[in-house]
Design a protein that fits this description.
Blueprint (H helix, E strand, L loop, with lengths): L1 H15 L2 E2 H14 L3 H15 L3 H9 L5 E2 L7
Antiparallel strand pairs: 1-2
Amino acid sequence: MIAVTTFYQLVEDAYERGVDRVNLMAAYRGFKQVVPDKGTERQLDRQFSELSGYSLYRVMKQAANTDKKIVRMPNDQH
């Protein structure tokens, strides 16, 4: 539960102020230990997005496609 909550918080931070990419990737690995299958991950992403307006998928895609130290989501990607 802590791993999931930590990951969600870092996703929110990526939208609000930016997060350290290494910490985000480590939190995602912890999240995947709890939620290993893609179907459940997609379902949780939809639920989280409906509640917060933030996308787990978009943040992780941004993190995977950059070599920058800080992952920061553009304001228009809510």
